[in-house]
Amino acid sequence: MLTTRPRGTNDILPNEIHIWHFLEETIRRICAEYGYKEIRTPIFEHTELFIRGVGDTTDIVEKEMYSFLDQSNRQLTLRPEGTAPTVRAFLENNLQNQLLPGKVYYFGPMFRYGRPQAGRYRQFHQFGVEAFGSNDPALDAEIIILAMDFYHRLGLKNLTLLLNSVGCPECRKKHRQLLQAYLQPVLNELCDTCQGRYKKNPLRIFDCKNISCQRLVLNGPTIADNLCESCSEHFKQVQIFLREANITFQLDPYLVRGLDYYTHTAFEILVEGIGAQNAIGGGGRYNGLVEELGGKPLPGIGFGLGLERILLALQEQEVDLQVKEKPHLFIATMNLEGKLKGFKLQAELRKAGFKVEMDYLDRSIKAQLKYAGKQGYQFVAILGEREIASESAALKVMDTGEQINISLVNLIPYLEGILKFKGTGFQGGLENDRNDKGIY
Ligand code: HAM
After folding, report:
1. Which of 166, 213, 249, 260 is spaced 20 to 30 Å from 294 by Cα?
2. CATH no. for residue 338?
3. Ligand 1 close to Cβ of residue 280 (< 6 A)
4. What is d(CA 141, CA 151) in angstroms, rounded to the nearest whole number?
5. Distance of CA 198 from the midpoint of ligand 1 (Å)
6. pLDDT-based confidence at residue 439 (cuts at 50, 70, 90)
7. If you take atom 15 of ligand 1, which residue's CA is the nearest one?
8. What residue's CA is closest to ligand 1, atom 24?
9. Comparing C-alpha atoms, which of 112, 110, 90, 113 is closest to residue 102?
């Protein structure tokens, strides 16, 4: 127990963190390009926010929330998603009265108590964006384009973009009646949950995982076939803007999404090859949510992308992100005197911006070189007895095994020259400082 993490959670280990940093940097860059600023909301919120926001007949609220009472008996929930908290923050901080559209993004852990399997975790990470204050179908398209652009920048292929419109409350009312009438004769054949949904929220039946419910609803009236004129026009325009941007999509009249706040455009992105949990992102409009949570009517649209699933897909497609940045220099020492010199040198090099480490395990030079190689160091500066006596270091290029002797005062300018730009890799051959080959 003490050495086991909770079911459905993952450790992100030091040897894989560079991939997460890369994802985060790509997120920051792309969001800056599209004009979205970061928002950070708490990891937990009042439970009521999700009941009202996500909907009390959704799987998330019915079965998947991590809810608890705090020491003062407040009912709180670890956030299962980021849209309701973003709307709450928007309202609480009066952002709806500032510059519109308000365009924000977030990146962080979400929590859902589902049955863990490949691609489904109890703690997972989402990259999400939300835009408030505009009902322009071009913005719907921009949001979808942003998601697709993100996947493409990572090098992901074989994606399917599913698109639907779930209409406005008016079309929903009409559709609800049609669907209820259609299902009335087979009501007893629906699963228990869907019998409840039939009365409260029949659209949710489209989202049931139960095959027999899916079959019963399959030929029923879809919301997409029952859109009012204005919803239909909005949906058409979204498609025109997407085609204009050369985005391929598939219309899916059965796509209703697992959260209740959606209106108009709804979309989901699927990827091949990662098993049943193949939705790597989804989103849509939620023009009623701000009002539902106590604000003045204000349209909104956004998406959430599952980063673990994206990483699974990248792995499956063998995409090499090429993001591992090699650290610069390891200082290898043999005795206390060398260690003292190395310690001072290490501080100077770090001050100059180099990524440097030295040995703290009193290992042999051979073992230190092995360690430096495994850590990906580009150079090792060896401070042996001979080097200490001549105030120099034996500088070894790890890729080629080449080695020169260099005086310590010249080391920093030498490395600066050879690395050309800080943070990039070594690109050329060594020029001997003193022209005497070392022995290591
Ligand atoms: P969602 O479809 O519930 O939408 O989640 C978005 C994405 O998060 C999914 O497509 C999937 O990639 C990932 N995801 C969901 N649950 C899990 C899980 N248990 N394990 C791993 N990944 C998971 C939302 O959350 C909405 N808030 C999206 C949105 C933002 N709509 C408008 N704005």
Report:
1. 166
2. 3.40.50.800
3. yes
4. 16
5. 25
6. very low
7. 306
8. 304
9. 90
User: Is 202 close to ligand 1, i.e. is its CB under 6 Å away?
Assistant: no
Residue 120 beta carbon below 6 angstroms from any ligand 1 atom: yes
Beta sheet of 329-333, edge-to-edge order? 356-358, 329-333, 379-383, 392-397, 403-407
Q: Is 80 in the pocket of ligand 1 (CB under 6 A)?
A: no
**Shared-domain flag, residues 116 and 247:** yes
**Joined tokens for residue 231:** 């919803």
Rounded Cα–Cα distance for residues 342 and 425 (Å)? 22
Among 157, 130, 279, 119, residue whose Cα is nearest residue 207? 279
Tell me if 223 is assigned to some domain. Answer: no
Ligand 1 nearest-atom number relative to CA 130 = 33
pLDDT, one tens digit per residue, over 367-423 is 999 999 999 999 999 999 999 999 999 999 999 999 999 999 999 999 999 886 444
Domain hosting 409: range is 329-422
Whether 117 and 277 have beta carbons less than 8 Å apart is answered as yes
Is residue 120 located within the same domain as residue 238? yes
Distances (CA, A) of 302 to 32, 36, 71: 16, 11, 35
Q: How many CB atoms lie within 10 A of CB 15?
A: 9
Atom of ligand 1 at shortest distance to CA of 283?
31
| Distance between Cα 303 and ligand 1 center (Å) | 8
